[in-house]
Design brief:
This protein is α/β, with parallel strands linked by helices and about 210 residues long. It has one domain: Rossmann fold, CATH 3.40.50.150. The protein contains seven helices and eight strands; from the N terminus they run ααβαβαββαβαβαββ. It has helices at about 5-30, 30-40, 60-70, 80-85, 120-130, 155-165, 170-180, and strands spanning about 50-55, 70-75, 90-95, 105-115, 135-145, 170, 185-190, 200-205. Strands 1, 2, 3, 4, 5, 6, 7 and 8 form an eight-stranded mixed beta sheet that branches. It is globular, with a radius of gyration of 16 Å. The N and C termini lie far apart (about 40 Å). The mean pLDDT is about 95. Bound molecules: S-adenosylmethionine (SAM).
Length: about 210
């Protein structure tokens, strides 16, 4: 369990780093260009209901709104939400990924970039995402990769040790286990990342099974 994998600690952390989040953290770890490429793999269309879990200052929401037209977004951290632009296309609320305040089967797609790192119980949060997704709906969750350790790349080794000390990390099998335990179907994952560390992130995708006829 990472040191920042705790709801109260994550809140305090974002209270401290929120003022530098956009220029330093977002572009370093979850650059807009990377996020755009990931979101392009999803199939939701204009008019679909899309939820961004752990939306932070709204980087992912902007990209989702470009396609969906409108996005609902939730984050634990009030300072992060205060820093978000408040475009009409995004409805921001404060709340916890482990207890989403939406009724069952509300969304066509649920997306979460860079937030699962902090979740106390990633499977419970993925199960909540599953609950609020309609049958046949899609999921994309980007977290930190758990690569084999050590490697010949010193930057990668330092990043791996740091990530595992502070955050939830996942490898291919972890993703499969988490998605299956949370009820998702057709799960898969890919390794990607920013230019300085192209294996930093592991991005999971899955679908909610259609109802049996
Ligand atoms: C690295 S930021 C990512 C923000 C945004 N998705 C982006 O790509 O810029 C992680 C966000 O997850 C939020 N977060 C952490 N734990 C959470 C939880 N249990 N429920 C909801 N949001 C949470 C933090 O407040 C923070 O804003």
């Amino acid at each position: 369990m990472g040191l920042l994998q705790d709801t109260a600690t994550a809140s305090a952390w974002y209270e401290a780093v929120s003022s530098i989040y956009d220029p330093l953290v977002a572009e370093t770890f979850w650059p807009r260009r990377l996020q755009r490429r990931l979101l392009d793999t999803l199939e939701f269309a204009t008019g679909d209901r899309v939820l961004d879990v752990g939306c932070g200052t709204g980087v992912t929401c902007d990209l989702l709104a470009e396609r969906a037209g409108r996005v609902e977004a939730i984050d634990l951290s009030e300072p992060q939400l205060r820093r978000a632009d408040q475009p009409e296309s995004v409805e921001f609320i404060g709340g916890d990924a482990h207890q989403l305040p939406y009724t069952d089967e509300t969304f066509d797609a649920v997306v979460s970039v860079g937030a699962i790192l902090y979740f106390v119980d990633p499977v419970a949060a993925l199960a909540e995402a599953h609950r609020v997704t309609r049958p046949g709906g899609e999921l994309l969750v980007a977290g930190f990769n758990r690569p084999p350790f050590p490697t010949l790349n010193p930057v990668e080794n330092v990043a791996t040790v740091a990530n595992e000390t502070f955050f939830h990390t996942w490898g291919r099998e972890d993703v499969e286990t988490c998605l299956t335990a949370a009820g998702w179907y057709d799960g898969d994952s890919e390794v990607t990342g920013p230019v300085w560390h192209p294996r930093l992130a592991r991005v999971a995708t899955a679908r909610k099974a259609e109802r049996p006829r």
